[in-house]
Amino acid sequence: MSHTILLVQPNQRPETRTYSDYESLNECLEGICKIFEEHLKRLHPHDPSITYDISQLFEFIDQLTDLSCLVFQKSTGIYTPHNKDWLKEKIYHMLRKQAGK
């Protein structure tokens, strides 16, 4: 369980910056997926169910002006920053693990 802070900036306007904090990295990764799912629901409000594949999720992540996170390292007592590519790799492994269940 590593406390994680997610930093999101959807577009170039600084006022769109937000952050969320999570009790663990996995919760943060699931939070990113939920952000994308909410985006899809806004695009398709009349669809009863939303489906997507990982390439669509990664395209969404790439289109964000900024997406990064800070993960608390208990051993050093500091937060380590991570970028979009690192997050995409972690999301890929999380979803692959979930699909294997």
TrEMBL record:
InterPro entries: EHR_sf, ERH
Keywords of the record: Cell cycle
Pfam family for this entry, one: ER
TM stretches of this protein: none
Function: May have a role in the cell cycle.
Similarity remark: Belongs to the E(R) family.
Protein's name in the database: Enhancer of rudimentary homolog
Organism of this sequence: Plakobranchus ocellatus
Source lineage: Eukaryota, Metazoa, Spiralia, Lophotrochozoa, Mollusca
